[in-house]
Inverse folding.
């Protein structure tokens, strides 16, 4: 069952993306048109103050059924289904977002990439499958056990040779990379999907590591919709805890002249940053 809501929350104390608790009623978007001469039923966003087309769980399910699941690589499907049994499944990248990452990597001809926050590896495998045979991913996570759950599937897919997994907190690893001038401006694509309270710290570092014209993707930047919720709205502690950090990041990125940005409402929101200087 697909869940959409104003914001999501969950029991995880980690950086998980979890269940929706609050659902706004969808406006009735059917309306009569043509000056009342013909009662034509239009389905659209005519009654909404915005232009998002994603109005229902059924619409998201339609996207999955029609465009995502039929094209999902068999190894990604296996990894997704394995992860669905994990108690922290809600941290996993959804398959439509995996498809987006794959498309972006191919469109940009990415070869040298980085991922911060691996979990069982759905976005990692999406990346590994999208890269050319000699492509590389520097993947970081504090928890190797999560990565090892997905590793046999990644190996079976024949793409494990592209992955250099490093266990540990990402910040010191990034600082280590920055000591070598050769690493600066050398990454084509960087996906950040770990501890949200460090996203600005990551940004200060990865902006130097990505090449000019390269892309950084920050995940969960809509934070279950909580970024637009009133501060006194009911939210889980975990949402409340990270929300100021996500808000701060979004504000910072909105004004950072070193990047062009694009906020996409895919998954829990992904902000793409293209380095321009
Ligand atoms: N991209 C993953 C996927 O496709 O399933 C989901 C990543 S999950 C939302 C966040 C991950 O970040 C967890 O696996 C967690 O162990 C990791 N993490 C949390 N804090 C971290 C840190 N300081 N450095 C590196 N990884 C961290
Ligand atoms: Ca995420």
């Amino acid at each position: 069952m697909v869940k959409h809501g104003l914001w999501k929350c969950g029991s995880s104390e980690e950086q998980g993306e979890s269940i929706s608790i609050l659902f706004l009623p969808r406006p009735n978007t059917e309306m009569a048109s043509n000056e009342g001469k013909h009662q034509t039923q239009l389905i659209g966003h005519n009654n909404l103050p915005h232009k998002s087309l994603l109005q229902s769980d059924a619409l998201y399910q339609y996207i999955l059924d029609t465009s995502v699941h039929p094209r999902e690589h068999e190894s990604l499907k296996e990894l997704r289904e394995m992860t669905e049994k994990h108690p922290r499944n809600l941290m996993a990248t959804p398959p439509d977002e995996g498809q987006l990452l794959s498309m972006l990597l191919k469109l940009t001809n990415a070869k040298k990439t980085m991922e911060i926050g691996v979990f069982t590896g759905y976005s990692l495998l999406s990346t590994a499958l999208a890269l050319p045979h000699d492509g590389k991913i520097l993947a970081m996570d504090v928890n190797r056990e999560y990565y090892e759950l997905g590793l046999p599937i990644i190996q079976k897919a024949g793409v494990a040779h592209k992955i250099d997994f490093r266990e540990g907190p990402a910040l010191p690893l990034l600082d280590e990379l920055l000591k070598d001038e050769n690493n600066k401006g050398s990454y084509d694509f960087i996906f950040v999907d770990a501890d949200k309270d460090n996203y600005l710290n990551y940004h200060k570092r990865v902006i130097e590591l990505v090449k000019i014209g390269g892309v950084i993707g920050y995940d969960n930047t809509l934070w279950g919709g909580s970024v637009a919720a009133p501060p006194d709205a009911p939210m889980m502690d975990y949402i409340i805890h990270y929300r100021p950090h996500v808000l701060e990041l979004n504000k910072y990125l909105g004004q950072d002249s070193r990047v062009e940005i694009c906020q996409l409402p895919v998954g829990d929101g992904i902000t793409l940053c293209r380095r321009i200087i």
Q: What stands out?
A: The first strand starts at residue 7 and ends at 8. The domain at 2-275 is CATH 3.40.50.150 (Rossmann fold). Residues 237-255 form the longest helix (19 residues). The pocket of calcium ion (ligand 2) is lined by residues 17, 93, 193, 219-220, 268 (CB under 6 Å).
